[in-house]
Amino acid sequence: MISPLRIDNFSLSASEQKFTEAFPQIREILDKRKGKVLADRMDAPKRKRLILKTEIAGTPVVIKRELFVFRFDRSLKAFLFGSDAKNIFKITRRARERGFTKIPKTFLVAEKFSGGILKETISVTEFLDGAPLRPPISPDRAEEIKNLLTESHAHGIISGDVQFDNFMVTPDGIKLIDFRGNKVFPWLAKARDRLQLEFTLGIPVGKYGIAEKLFLFLNFLRNFYRKLYGKPPQHS
């Protein structure tokens, strides 16, 4: 990995020199929306997001920009340990170095802090040639997805949002996208993934362990308090 460097108040880490050199071009692509828009949530009140599919130096990529409104817990975590994007970059590279290829490559991540507060992140990842997972799910495919999630957890990768769109069916098999790194309580986050696998994709996880039971109990308490305040329930 190329050592981190600074460009226009951004701290950059990259796996290849060509992506560092292309950083001005990457910012221009985002500013002018040059490419296919995959997601546009720039009007969101707290965490604005723009995701584009384009090409950098002959490589098909996905570029994601996130802008953040101040939140104490996130700002403190980012100041002490780096942004989610930076941590995912590290975890992804470590997993791929160990031979786990069921996730896209991360080519570059850039962080922008102001006064110690995280303001913006930009990441460049591999574009996967495939299509999102769609029902029905055959028994063989269900087993492949379960194994993929188990392997991801073993490498410190947590989905955090198990849904059809976050599994890509590619010529090399099913791959996981839009994932997160390890959490403060990884065993609880992994239990959440397994429960979502069952509730959202309809893939049974078998007998619930202590982590799954605890998560369901905490989720019940959260929704109980939401009901007291007249708010709709939230699923896992």
Globally, the shape reads globular
User: Structural class of the secondary structure composition?
Assistant: alpha+beta
Uncertain segments are: none
Cα radius of gyration in angstroms: 19 Å
Biggest sheet, open or closed, and with what strands and sense?
7 strands, antiparallel
CATH class of the largest domain: Alpha Beta
CATH architecture of the largest domain: 2-Layer Sandwich
Helix count, DSSP H or I runs of 4 or more residues = 7
Order of helices and strands: EEHHEEEHHEEEHEEHH
Strand order within the widest sheet?
A: 1-2-6-7-5-4-3
Count of folded domains: 2
- Gap between N and C termini: 36 Å
CATH topology of the largest domain: Phosphorylase Kinase, domain 1
Strand content: 25-35%
Number of DSSP-assigned strands: 10
Integer average pLDDT: 89
Proportion of residues in helical segments? 25-40%
Architecture blueprint of SSEs:
Blueprint: E1 2-7, E2 10-14, H1 17-21, H2 23-32, E3 36-40, E4 47-56, E5 59-68, H3 72-81, H4 84-97, E6 106-114, E7 117-126, E8 131-132, H5 139-154, E9 167-170, E10 173-176, H6 186-201, H7 210-228
Antiparallel strand pairs: 1-2, 2-6, 3-4, 4-5, 5-7, 6-7, 8-9, 9-10
Protein described:
With 236 residues, the protein is of the alpha+beta class. It folds into two domains: 2-126, 2-Layer Sandwich (Phosphorylase Kinase, domain 1), CATH 3.30.200; 131-228, Orthogonal Bundle (Transferase(Phosphotransferase), domain 1). It is built from seven helices and ten strands. Strand 4 (47-56) and strand 5 form a beta hairpin. The longest helix is centred in the C-terminal third of the chain and has 19 residues, at 210-228. It is globular and about 50 Å long. The model has no long low-confidence stretch (mean pLDDT 89).
